[in-house]
Amino acid sequence: MIPVVSADVDDSPISPAPDLAALEELESDLAAVDRALAALDDGSYGRCQVCRVVIESEVMTSSPVATHCGAHRAVALSLAPDPSPVQDPGPESSGSQPGSWS
Q1: What is the pTM of this model?
Q2: CATH 1.20.120.910: does it fit domain 23-76?
């Protein structure tokens, strides 16, 4: 008996679309690890980038890529770009919303 093969059937696996947010987060994490490895090489690992004091051991334990002491961490975080910028809702949301100008 000869097997029947249909040319209309695509049995290749369907790969999901890449999760760009997850990819960006992984790239950011990798960059932080690369910076930590460079700091190990130059002797600055575990020291605040602003005042050069030793970063608290609890902080380094919970986040081995930390770059700021407790006194400067809030300032560094406030200067970091917002990871989730507000998107323009576009023309679809032309209805009047509370607080809108229309």
Answers
A1: 0.56
A2: yes
